[in-house]
Design brief:
By secondary structure, the protein is mainly α. Helix content is 77%, strand content 0%. InterPro entries: Beta-lactamase_Reg.
C-alpha cells in the first residue's frame, strides 16, 4: 500500500506540474488490439479485449518481483500504468482550459472535453457541474480506488473498461452491452464513495437527500445498464443549493465559471481526503 500511495502522489504531482504528459496517453495500441480480435463477438470479445492486457500487466509485475531492487522497479511500473490510466485527457488541464477560454464560444467548446462518450454538454451550471463530477470519477477517483485495491492491474482494467464502453469501437450489440455493464460495475463503488466525500466537502443534506431519492426511485439494477446516476443526482443537488443561495439575480446565481471553480476546489478537497485515508492505513500498518 505504501508503494501504491507513493506512486499515486508522484503521478498526481507530475500531472499537475507537467499536464503535457497527457499527450502520450493515447488509446491507439488498445484500439488496434480490439480491431485485431474483430473475428470474435459478444461477451467473448469484450473479455478477450480486457483480460489479455491485464494478464500481461500481472505477468510484468511477477517478473519485476524477481529482479533485484524489486520495490523500486515496482514503483516505476506502477507510476507508468497510473499515468496511462489517468487518461485519456488531463483532467485538471481540461478544467483550466475552460476557465481560461477567452469568450463564451471557446468556453462551450472547451467544456466538451469533459465527456468521453461524445454527448454534448449544455452551457449551464448544473450540466457542466454534472460533467465535472463524472470526469472526476472516471479520470481520477475511479482509477485511484481500483489502483489501491488491485494495484496497477486494477487501474489498467478500469481505464480499459471505460475506454471500450465509451470509445468509438465497432462492437456488436451484445459486446457493447457487456462492455457498458462492466464499466458501470467498476464505476459503482468509487461513485458511491465519491458521493459521500462530496457530501462531506460540500452540502451534506442536499447531497445525501438526492442520493437517497435516486435509489428510492431507481429500478433495481438499473445502474448496471445506465450507469451510476446517483452521482449525477448528487452533483446536481450540490450545485442547486449554491444557485438557490444567490442574491436573486439568475445571471449571478448560475454563473457557470464560478460553479466550476467551486467544484474544482471541492474535488481537490475530496482527493486530499481519499489520499489522507490511504496514508492513515499505511501508517497504521507500520505501527502494527
Amino acid at each position: 500500500m505504501a508503494v501504491s500511495l507513493l506512486a499515486a502522489l508522484i503521478a498526481i504531482g507530475l500531472l499537475h506540474l507537467q499536464p503535457h504528459l497527457a499527450h502520450w496517453r493515447g488509446d491507439g495500441g488498445f484500439r488496434r488490439w480490439v480491431t485485431q480480435i474483430g473475428d470474435t463477438s459478444g461477451t467473448g470479445r469484450v473479455l478477450l479485449a480486457l483480460l489479455v492486457p491485464v494478464a500481461l500487466c500481472l505477468l510484468a509485475l511477477w517478473l519485476i518481483g524477481l529482479l533485484p531492487m524489486a520495490d523500486l522497479f515496482r514503483l516505476a511500473f506502477a507510476l507508468v500504468v497510473l499515468l496511462y490510466a489517468f487518461g485519456p485527457h488531463a483532467y485538471e488541464a481540461d478544467l483550466e482550459a475552460i476557465l481560461r477560454a477567452p469568450d463564451g464560444a471557446s468556453q462551450q467548446a472547451a467544456v466538451q472535453s469533459l465527456t468521453d462518450d461524445g454527448e454534448p454538454i449544455a452551457w449551464n451550471a448544473i450540466a457542466v457541474g454534472e460533467a465535472v463530477a463524472y470526469a472526476a470519477l472516471r479520470r481520477r477517483f475511479g482509477v485511484l480506488l481500483w489502483f489501491f485495491i488491485l494495484g496497477p492491474a486494477g487501474a489498467l482494467l478500469y481505464r480499459l473498461a471505460q475506454t471500450l464502453a465509451r470509445g468509438p469501437f465497432d462492437l456488436d450489440p451484445e459486446a457493447k452491452s457487456t462492455s457498458r455493464a462492466i464499466a458501470h460495475f467498476m464505476d459503482w463503488l468509487p461513485a458511491q464513495l465519491l458521493v459521500f466525500t462530496l457530501a462531506l466537502v460540500g452540502h451534506w443534506d442536499a447531497v445525501v437527500h438526492a442520493w437517497k431519492e435516486w435509489h428510492r426511485q431507481a429500478i433495481p439494477g438499473s445502474w448496471l445498464r445506465d450507469g451510476p446516476g446517483f452521482l449525477g443526482a448528487a452533483a446536481r443537488a450540490d450545485i442547486q443549493v449554491d444557485i438557490e443561495a444567490g442574491d436573486g439575480y439568475a445571471e449571478e446565481r448560475s454563473d457557470v465559471l464560478a460553479e466550476l471553480k467551486r467544484l474544482r476546489s471541492a474535488f481537490v478537497r475530496a482527493l486530499l481526503a481519499w489520499l489522507s485515508v490511504v496514508a492513515l492505513i499505511v501508517i497504521a500498518g507500520w505501527m502494527s
